[in-house]
Each structure stands twice: as C-alpha cells, then as structure tokens.
Amino acid sequence: MTLEFVTLAFDGPVALVTIDRPKALNALNAQVLQELDQALGLAAAHADTRALILTGEGGKAFVAGADIAEMAQYTPAQALAFSAKGHQVMARLEALPFPTIAAVNGFALGGGLELALACDLLYASEKAKLGLPEVSLAVIPGFGGTQRLMRAVGKLRARELIFTGEAIDAAKAKEIGLALEVLPHDALLPRCKEIAHTIATRGPLALSQAKRVIEAGADLPLKDANELERQAFALLFGTDDQKEGMRAFLEKRKAAFKNL
Ligand code: CAA
C-alpha cells in the first residue's frame, strides 16, 4: 500500500497499522487521519483479518496528538470539520468487526491517547506517557477523549487528567485501568502480537458479536444490554463455526473456524 504516513502490514490474520510520521512524533494532521481511515478500511476489507494492532513509528511516540501546527489557525468551522473527521476515524476503529490493540510505545497525548482509547485493548511500554494536554493549548480533547477517557477510568480520574493536562506514566496508567500491562519497550510489540494471534484462533463471528455487544451495551441500561447479549448469543447458534467449535471440543481437537 502506498500511503505516505501510515503503513499496513499483515502477519497472517493480524494486521499491523503503524503511524509513520516520526519527525512530528506521529502527530495527526488531516492527511494522516485520512490515510489512517484508508488503512483501517483496507484491513477490514481483507477477509482474513482477525485482529489489528495499532502503533507508532520511531521509538519515541505512539502519537503525540493532533497536529498543532495545522490546527493553530483553524476557524471554528475548520475545527468542527477536523474534529468530525477524527471522530469518524475513531468510530471506524470501534466498529471494526475484529478486536484492535493499541501498542502504546511512547507519547500518547491528546489525539494520540484518543486513538488508543478507541482501540479495544491497550498495552504500554515502560517508556509510554499518556495524557490529554489540550487545556494547555486552551482547547479540549476533540476526538472523543472527554467521553472515552471518562468511560474508561471514571469521571473523577478523567477530570484530573483533563483539567491538569499532565501526562501519566505507564505504571500509573495500569494502576487506573487505562493500560492492561506495562512491558519493556522491546517486548511491547511481540506481546501485542502474541495476544493478537491468540485472539485470531477464536471464533471470528463470536469475537465480532462480543465486541459489538460490549460496545453498544456500555451505553445502555443493563436490562437492554443483556437483551442485546441474549440476541447475539442466539444468533451465533445459526453459524457453522458454533457447530465446529462445540464439535471440536467434544472430539478433543482444535477447531477450524471459517468465519461462517
Ligand atoms: N503537533 C505537531 N507537531 C508536533 C506535535 C503535535 N501534537 N508533537 C510534537 N510535534 C513536533 C514538534 O513540534 C517537533 O517538531 P520540530 O522538530 O519541527 O520542532 C517534533 O515533533 C519533536 O517534538 P519536540 O521537539 O517537542 O520533542 P520533545 O521530546 O521535546 O517533547 C512532547 C515531546 C512532550 C510530546 C512534545 O512534543 C509535546 O508536548 N507535543 C505536543 C503534545 C500535545 O499537546 N498534544 C495534544 C495536541 S492537541 C489535540 O490532540 C487535540 C485533539 O484532541 C484533537
């Protein structure tokens, strides 16, 4: 794929998307956002994709935020359009029919943390620094950070991070439930690949339904969310993979899922 600032590679069923603009610490300008959108579309169009890892190039940053140089002179209308594009890309990530993993290998600030928050799982290197520093620029997070951070760690902690604008290290991120694991820098990507490949062995339609039900259910009253689960559970019994999964268990062999 010939994009300038985003690369997409496949390792069997695992797609690896890398934001590759290290000179600006992988900051998201309109072009990077557009290319990321394209890369996610291509990963989704690839029928064999079962999991996706998102990371940043250069060893220093995951993504250091939306591009401040580009935003500096925005009018409110331009800011609205830029925010809409950011929200659309984050929503696309969330709606992918397979799990996504943020491999946070350095600065994940502003739009960078917002991107990581739109992934299903987040692992951090011990070099990672995570935060929403927008108020230091006299703006607020614009790609969903106020809402996704609050949902991830609760209102109180989200307020502290957003109001102070200060970044936290990986250990603190793990302590507050923002990161699953803190890994030595060089072990981060291998660990994320290991998780992704484990996920890739599971029933793909079940993964997609589990993701959908968790995502949609989080915003619903428990009764309605449980109903969503009940419907999705039943739906899966109409799939070949469910028959294969249960037959394989009873026959004491590995299941061979077909995404059918
Ligand atoms: N936008 C544009 N350029 C950026 C950038 C950003 N968010 N972050 C870093 N860069 C650029 C720097 O301008 C610098 O470019 P030059 O070499 O051309 O001067 C280059 O990347 C390297 O950065 P630093 O020299 O600043 O590196 P450092 O190690 O001294 O500091 C840092 C690293 C603490 C991450 C610092 O770069 C920084 O604070 N970056 C901005 C972080 C930020 O505020 N992010 C939020 C942006 S607003 C947002 O994201 C809004 C939203 O929600 C949509």
SSE inventory with pairings:
Elements: E1 6-11, E2 14-19, H1 30-45, E3 51-56, E4 61-63, H2 68-71, H3 76-95, E5 100-104, E6 107-109, H4 111-117, E7 121-125, E8 129-131, H5 145-153, H6 155-164, E9 168-169, H7 170-175, E10 182-183, H8 188-200, H9 204-217, H10 222-236, H11 240-250
Parallel strand pairs: 2-3, 3-5, 4-6, 5-7, 6-8, 7-10
Antiparallel strand pairs: 1-2, 8-9
The structure holds acetoacetyl-coenzyme A (CAA).
Q: What's this model, at a glance?
A:
This protein is of the alpha/beta class and 260 residues long. 48% of the residues lie in helices and 16% in strands.
Plain-language structure description:
This protein has 260 residues and is of the alpha/beta class. Helices cover 48% and strands 16% of the residues. The strands form two sheets. A six-stranded mixed beta sheet has the order 1-2-3-5-7-10, with helices on both faces. A four-stranded mixed beta sheet has the order 4-6-8-9. The radius of gyration is 19 Å and the shape is globular. The relative contact order is 0.11. Acetoacetyl-coenzyme A binds next to helix 2, strand 6 and helix 4.
The number of distinct β-strands equals 10
Strand arrangement in the largest pleated sheet: 1-2-3-5-7-10
Low-confidence stretches: none
First-last Cα distance: 28 Å
Radius of gyration: 19 Å
Helical amount: 40-55%
Heterogens: acetoacetyl-coenzyme A
| Beta-strand residue percentage | 15-25%
Largest sheet: 6 strands, mixed
Q: Helices and strands, in N-to-C order?
A: EEHEEHHEEHEEHHEHEHHHH
Structural class: alpha/beta
- Contiguous helical run count: 11
